[in-house]
Each structure stands twice: as structure tokens, then as C-alpha cells.
Amino acid sequence: MVSAEVDMSNRPLLITEDPTLIDDIVRLAAANGVDVHVVADAESARGRWTAAPLVLVGADLAPAVAATRPIRRPDVLLVTRAPATDEWQIAVGIGAEHVAVLPEAERWLIDRLADSAEGHSRQGLVLAVAGAGAGSGASTFAVTVALAGAATGVRVLLVDADASSGGLDLLLGIEDEPGMRWPDLAEARGRISPADLLAALPAGDGVSVLASGRRGTGTPVATEVVASILDAGERGFDLVVVDVGRVADPMAQAVVARARQTMLVTGNHVLPVASAARLARRLEAMSAGVGVVIRLDGNGVSDESIRSVLQLPVLGRLPRAAGLVARADDGDPPSLRDAYGRACANILDDLLEFAHPTKRPA
Questions:
Q1: pLDDT per residue as tens digits for the range 253-263
Q2: Cis amide bond preceding 74, omega within 30
Q3: 3-state secondary structure string, 158-196?
Q4: Which of 99, 224, 266, 299 could bond 132 through an S-S bridge, CB–CB 3.0 to 4.6 Å?
């Protein structure tokens, strides 16, 4: 049932003129007893954009919504029945965290609509970590940032979304711990409970880890599954750190589109900076925010030159840490007590201050 004009602040907002899409969404919402408020033009939606617990934008009105330059907020979905090649670019324009293609995404969308009945409940900060080429150190940085978050007392989820990764559980030294890996989720469908996710994952030093595992996924992980994991991460964790590698597949791209901040890790020499420049343009087209983290390797290109080439803010600098490789070989996680660990903690601290200036971890 499409609800009346009164007391709509706690109802999902649907922005579309497509009668078929309206019928579909209202039907899916009704499956959970949820009312939907439908608005048929972008301007009329502006007054309810921030108040609604969930905003669904039909592909027909997405360009018009983007033209209003909407405030960035969580829980915005692009909904379509006819996927386009540029759907992620359209999604970025409206700040959408996911593209729901019907009818394939019906089950997932029913769960999201059910979650919306609980209001604005998700708090977790999603950070994506990308690497400018092999050996960039992105995975080690992601693990150390996650450990730095856990050291402040917040609940941290670390996710491996790099198809070429050997497994982040290896870097934490918990590869032999029982628990769920990506291959166990490759064909999962529907809503994932944060409590179930927490109970199912292996953990080390206060960090719960969803790793690739040694046998790979076998079949590609559907973006609906990735979205469900991130939903559960935002609802059940304070910080979600995701290693997306070089953002080479739809799983990693879905994470970058969802992340509050994407951190591009690059070395400070000409070749990695050139590689980072190519990746930076792709990330800017997908992510709400992109910054560069410079890994120092002797005398190289200056910070100012890197900033000029990449046209990105520098989030921090990582000193050389010769002991990182040895620690990994010994099955020990990165340390937070050395210069590298302190640099990672400082970068995270700055990001937390930016994201939640009045709600920093104790």
C-alpha cells in the first residue's frame, strides 16, 4: 500500500515514475508489512531525502536526482529492471551503495525493506583499501588499520575482496582457525544476521575476518552477497575494512561504491605512481571519497609531486618496515608498536575524526 502524506519520515522513500517498478516495490514491501512513500519527481523528494530510513531511486529518475546534488547519506539504492553498462556510474551520481536489478534481487530487496522498518540503525564505517599494483602493501596496510581499530576497543570486520589475494587470515596468523571463508558464502542468498556473521567468522586480536581461503570461491560471488555482508558489517560492527586490491572485479567495485572512503596505497617511485594514476581515475568514478597513502621506499618522488599527479589528498605516509615480511613468515600479525603500526593508527584516527567528529572510540 502506498501511504498517505502524513508521518512519512519513518517510511522507505521510492523515487520513480515507472508504474511497473512502483508495483514491484510496493509488493515487495508489503511482504514485510512495510509501507512505501512514492514520489514521482526528484525535486519533491528533497524534503524526505535525509529523513527516510531507506531511499530507492528508479533508474528512470536517477539522472534527475543526481542533478539535484543530493546530500551523501547511507541506505540509498538504485533500482532497475533493465541493467545498463553504466549503472555504477549512475549509482555514484546519486550516492547509491548498491544497484538492485529486479527480479533477480527481489529476495535481497525484501530483506533491506524489512531492515528499514527498524529506522536508521546501521553505524559502521566502511573503508576500502586499494593497491597500485602488485607489492603495493595494500593488504598489510588493511590488516594493520583493522588491528589499530580493534586496539581502540571498537568492533572490527576485515573483509578480503581481492580476487588475487592469498588470504588476509594469513597476515593475521589465523589461517588454521575454524570459521567461514568466502567459498562458504559464494551461493548464499538473503539477509545475513550480524550476530550470525560474528559467530561464524574466525577472529584474531579483536578483528573478525572474512578471507578468501586457500581454495578460492570456485564461482564468482554475487554482488547481492557482497551487499548483504556489508549490510551486516555496518549493522553489527563499528568499522569495516575491505581489501579491494586493484578493483578488478564486480565484487571489489561494489565495495568501493559502498565505502565512505577509499584509500589508494602506492609506493613513492615513478612506476607505482604512474600505476596509481590510472587506478585513481577509476576509483573517483565509483567512490564517494578517495585519498592516497604513500608507502616510503627510500628516496623517491616527493609527496607534492605525487599529490599533483594523482590529484588526490594525501591521507598519510607509511615508513619502511623491514620486519613486516619476517613477522608474516613467522605467522605473527603486524605490530602497532613500531613506526609503521603507529602511522596506520594515525591515518585511521584522522579518518574516524572526519567521519564521526563527535563520536570517536574511547
A1: 889 988 989 99
A2: no
A3: EEECCCCCCCHHHHHCCCCCCCCCHHHCCCCCCCCCHHH
A4: 266
Specify the pairing of strand 207-210 against strand 156-160.
parallel
13-116 architecture in CATH?
Answer: 3-Layer(aba) Sandwich (3.40)
Answer yes or no: same fold for 13-116 and 125-355: yes
What pLDDT digit, counting tens, does each position of 161-218 carry?
Answer: 987 777 899 999 999 999 999 888 876 766 787 888 899 999 999 999 999 876 554 4
CATH of domain 125-355: 3.40.50.300
Nearest Cα to Cα of residue 139 among 263, 16, 31, 226: 263
Contact 229, 210 (CB under 8 A): yes
How high is the pLDDT of residue 274? 94
Helix (H) or strand (E) segment spanning residue 310: helix 303-310
pLDDT digits (tens, 9 = 90+) for 10-23: 789 999 999 999 99
* Domain coordinates in residue numbering, the chain: 13-116, 125-355
Contact 139/131 with Cβ under 8 angstroms? yes
